[in-house]
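Practice problem. Given the sequence and the SMILES for adenosine-5'-triphosphate, write out the predicted structure.
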Amino acid sequence: MNQNAIRDVVEVRNVSHFFDNPESGSIPVLSKLSLRIRQQEFVSIVGPSGAGKSTLFNIISGLLTPSEGSVLVHGQDIRQSTGHVGYMMQKDLLFPWRTVIENVGLGLEIKGAAKSKRKELGRDYLRRYGLESFADAYPSTLSGGMRQRVAFIRTLVTNPDIILLDEPFSALDYQTRLVLEEEILSVLREQGKTVVLVTHDIGEAIAMSDRVVVMSKRPGTVKQIYDVGLAALHGSALRARADHRYNDFFEAIWKDLDIQIGREA
Ligand SMILES: Nc1ncnc2c1ncn2[C@@H]1O[C@H](COP(=O)(O)OP(=O)(O)OP(=O)(O)O)[C@@H](O)[C@H]1O
Ligand SMILES: [Mg+2]
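Answer key:
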């Protein structure tokens, strides 16, 4: 085994997926997709709507078994591996009938942690992210940015070493988005997490990532990979946006995505 293979924490091997549709038969969603993610890397995936990005996350997290191919996490088939992957889903809504701390403790509850342990760990995390005073509040009383922070904490609290984030900032206003990008980037780097982020925002992908993967339209496969590394170089997503190479990456990725202005992407 070579050095790179040892440091790959996620390996997507030749994955294809089809969904059965009663009217149109079998729909190919992913086609022979291969991708390796290295330890402590921050990788973003951009691609047209319907390219199969969320489906890919469902497969990497082990929620969905691919029609063909396999996913290895730390060299082990995902179906045999547990606890390594934390997944913040695209519509990762908080349960409105649960308080913030009860929402945060959900993953721990599923893992069978005792209530006292859930409360203690939950409070500890909320304190770290400045949300302790909202522990007993209901999600409806929080701002959009706070709700996303709570959903993010819920993903972190079980301490996975690989984090999948599916459009975590898409519902937020631009300013809140920039603040959260910076905050989440520094937390994840500090804790040495491996991160894969799906986003429609090309600028966000460039500003946050070591590498950006561009997917083709459905059936999705890897079209191009860019070594960006501006956030690591500058230690900040905001400062990465000011780097002169930011625009070059933007232009190249925009071309790859082949977005037709005036037509739906
Ligand atoms: N459970 C399912 N059953 C049938 N078809 C599905 C299912 N889930 C997704 N699809 C279809 O698979 C394709 C890919 O969906 P997916 O949600 O993975 O795309 P996406 O790249 O995440 O899109 P978006 O950027 O809009 O979130 C779409 O055509 C979708 O309608
Ligand atoms: Mg999606």
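Check your answer against the key. The longest strand covers residues 8-21.
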